[in-house]
Design brief:
- The chain is of the alpha+beta class.
- The protein folds into two domains: 101 residues, Alpha-Beta Plaits (2-Layer Sandwich), CATH 3.30.70.100; 157 residues, Alpha-Beta Plaits.
- It has an eight-stranded antiparallel β-barrel, surrounded by six helices.
- The two termini are 29 Å apart.
């Protein structure tokens, strides 16, 4: 992704056309009063909808530490660019670090359908997590999983609160399994990840957790030159768990462990953050 603002906006117009566009703001806030004014003043402008605002766990990912993630959806790339022209400069004055990723979001009907499926799965195969999950799980490959520090901080937060998990995925061209029999025939990284998603997805759905937003990354509109988000990304997935303990219970489950091999094989890299609704 080119961090030159003019080139990025040209890329956005070329790739997105008249499709809806979502801007994902990754913010390290230095002036909280000014930030609250910005939130109030920018909400709903240029036909936008504020979809989510999440307070990130106080822990860096690859050196990038953020306070909040805000997702605004726009009716077109033109309106998103106009928004940035009016409100982008002000945001940089009140934040010590700003990174703005543009994506083409999936249709909202997709997430309504997933929510309905989750309700049905809970009805017939539902699981309720109680108590304090064990802390045995550690990331086999921190390039594609939360690192140990992230997990320690995640476990230290309020387990009863809802949890949002931000996933920005970069697929391998060809899946790389450690042993041939683990994956069978040669498949793409996306196919391997789909195998993981099928296994892990059921464990999420039966607990009332599911993707609430997602889409195809287009370009990075704003960021510092060394931003860890400045890469080619294939998919953005935003998942909500009713309780933080749900995620911690899922990753300790035997079924989930069966899917880890496919995620490791299919993904080259992820940007991952966790947090609660702000």
């Amino acid at each position: 992704m080119d961090l030159n603002a003019e080139n990025s906006r040209e890329m956005l117009e070329k790739c997105a056309g008249k499709n809806k566009i979502a801007l994902i703001f990754h913010l390290k806030i230095s002036d909280f009063e000014g930030y609250n004014d910005w939130l109030y003043g920018s909400k709903g402008k240029f036909g936008s909808r504020r979809m989510f605002r999440v307070k990130a766990d106080p822990v860096p990912r690859e050196g990038m530490e953020i306070d909040e993630i805000v997702i605004d959806e726009f009716p077109s790339s033109k309106s998103a660019i106009e928004f940035m022209s009016v409100f982008g400069a002000g945001l940089k004055l009140i934040c010590s670090n700003v990174a703005v990723l543009a994506i083409v979001p999936e249709p909202s009907a997709t997430f309504r359908i997933v929510k309905a499926i989750s309700w049905l799965v809970q009805l017939f195969k539902g699981v309720k997590d109680c108590g304090i999950p064990s802390a045995n799980w550690k990331a086999p490959n921190i390039a594609v999983w939360p690192d140990e520090y992230q997990m320690d901080v995640a476990r230290s937060q309020n387990l009863d609160e809802s949890l949002f998990v931000y996933n920005l995925n970069k697929n391998r061209a060809v899946a790389e399994y450690q042993t041939p029999e683990a994956g069978g025939r040669q498949i793409s990284g996306q196919e391997a990840y789909d195998r993981y998603a099928k296994i892990a997805g059921f464990e999420l759905l039966r607990r009332g957790a599911f993707p609430v937003y997602g889409g195809k990354p287009v370009c990075l509109l704003e960021a510092q030159n060394n931003c860890m988000l400045a890469d080619r990304w294939d998919k953005f997935i935003f998942v909500r768990y009713p309780q933080r303990r749900n995620l911690l219970a899922i990753i300790e489950s035997d079924e989930f462990v069966k899917g880890q091999t496919h995620r490791d094989a299919g993904l080259e890299r992820v940007a991952i953050f966790m947090g609660r609704e702000a």
